[in-house]
């Protein structure tokens, strides 16, 4: 195990599967103690925690409703009480709702939920985290390739939320620079997860839009998260890092 992040404490929201779980593992591999949040499956969350603890770091799972922005501050508070500090925040939890804007079945509740999970809760977590982060703090929020290049119909609302968190982070980078805290966006392309498997019904269509012609493995995205969280990224802030297989090329 490397000691690059030894002594650091990280939060990964939505850390029970996919990119979130891969990020939690990768941070732990670098020596960080890791807290993950989950919405429903306590059993799945505890399985990830046991896996992280087996790497020789401290780990814990916290239930948090990402659709409720107020839960973000409660999560940060609980993690600091448990671990004593917070150095790295990974806003990973997200949701995608496919629906053209002229779909008569669209409703405000669906839009509000997507906005809360993808934008309002990450912003609330950022505002809570910076109260307790010191010099060298790292904030990484998950964006999406479609945040800057939609490419598909039915994603206007989702694109808006991901564009919003990217814009917010670029602006916040200026505000947080004096505190020595960096804030960046990682825009992933198509990733092989339970929600969007590489052998799914739309995979061939998605693959045709990328230069590499394949889905990413969650570990490939997690590598970018670890870089942005690391000492080597001390001069990187307000940046959008695309790990999208050439989707935006």
UniProtKB/TrEMBL annotation:
<dbReference type="InterPro" id="IPR057326">
    <property type="entry name" value="KR_dom"/>
</dbReference>
<dbReference type="InterPro" id="IPR002347">
    <property type="entry name" value="SDR_fam"/>
</dbReference>
<protein>
    <submittedName>
        <fullName>SDR family oxidoreductase</fullName>
    </submittedName>
</protein>
<feature type="domain" description="Ketoreductase">
    <location>
        <begin position="8"/>
        <end position="194"/>
    </location>
</feature>
<dbReference type="Pfam" id="PF13561">
    <property type="entry name" value="adh_short_C2"/>
</dbReference>
<comment type="similarity">
    <text>Belongs to the short-chain dehydrogenases/reductases (SDR) family.</text>
</comment>
<dbReference type="InterPro" id="IPR036291">
    <property type="entry name" value="NAD(P)-bd_dom_sf"/>
</dbReference>
